[in-house]
Write a structure and sequence with these properties.
This protein is an alpha/beta fold. The chain has nine helices and eight strands. The longest helix has 43 residues.
């Protein structure tokens, strides 16, 4: 489908965010590329003069001069190519990171039975901490944050508990909920059907209110943000584990997202809530307004 008039495609958004991370990269690439091209042409000319010097003759340039020019041009070309390749590889790496961040921004957060918003709508006001794993781990990690909840909320932190869909406890809970729903439908002659389809995967009913244009309200900035379409969250988390060099067999992980949607830190085990509180400034602080209060990695 074509983008709406005035809108940006996903590729354009990725390119813009990638350029924003290194605003002078394009200029450097243009300059290094031009200089490398000039040095390459000069090297071809110098090699021709060196051949003349080796052959000798009345018009042949001095051999020492040709060798000196060859060494200088070769060194300059090697340095420029190195700088150019480094920038190109850096751009490729940044594009991969930005692409993953854009994929994260499209993941849904459930705000009601028939209402959900993509995570991008929380940018600038919420620092999500994704806690993913087995149900027992997720609930234990969220409970461990309770002593710090007030200070975490002042820093815009919200918890996104992602319980894996292959967790036996999650499947059992979904089965019980489905049986209860069926029983309720039988007693109520089918009224209220469809709620059981939400299940452990956190899917939303067809036609639910989903979109980027809907405004985020103060009530939406909850302490606990429930994920929608959990399978998509799981897929993103698995990719994050691979990107961050975490062992794939380690199921229980956490990821902290910045206000601008970038990933600040991720690791296995329970989030270090005390360190997160110490490292992140409050939302209304000058540091947050100027730098997003990135702080050191945890």
């Amino acid at each position: 489908m074509t983008e709406a008039k005035g809108g940006l495609s996903r590729e354009q958004k990725i390119n813009l965010r990638t350029e924003a991370k290194a605003p002078f990269r394009f200029a450097r690439t243009f300059i290094f590329g031009g200089l490398a091209g000039g040095a390459g042409l000069g090297l071809i000319v110098i090699i021709g003069r060196l051949v003349q010097s080796l052959r000798g003759g009345p018009d042949a340039p001095p051999l020492t001069e040709s060798l000196t020019n060859l060494g200088v041009n070769s060194a300059a070309l090697a340095i420029l190519v190195f700088l150019l390749v480094r920038d190109l590889r850096g751009k490729e790496a940044d594009e991969k990171v930005t692409s993953r961040e854009e994929a994260l921004s499209r993941l849904l957060v459930k705000l009601g039975p028939e209402r959900a918003l993509p995570l991008i709508r929380f940018r600038g006001v919420v620092r999500p901490v994704i806690v993913a794993g087995d149900r027992s781990f997720v609930e234990r990690s969220v409970k461990a944050a309770e002593p710090y909840q007030a200070t975490l909320r002042a820093r815009g932190v919200s918890v996104v508990p992602v319980v894996y869909t292959d967790d036996p406890n999650a499947k059992l809970k979904a089965l019980k909920k489905e049986l209860q729903q069926k029983s309720s439908n039988v007693k109520g002659f089918g009224k209220g059907g469809g709620g059981g389809d939400e299940g452990a995967a956190g899917e939303l009913p067809e036609g639910a209110g989903i979109g980027n244009s809907e405004s985020l309200t103060e009530e939406d900035r909850k302490w606990r943000l429930e994920p929608g379409a959990v399978a998509e969250w799981e897929q993103w988390i698995e990719e994050q584990k691979e990107f961050a060099g975490m062992e794939r067999v380690k199921r229980n992980v956490w990821v902290q997202i910045q206000l601008d949607g970038t990933v600040r830190a991720s690791d296995v085990g329970t989030p270090p809530w005390a360190r997160i509180v110490a490292d992140l400034p409050p939302l209304d602080s000058f540091k947050t307004k100027v730098t997003d209060g990135i702080g050191p990695s945890v």
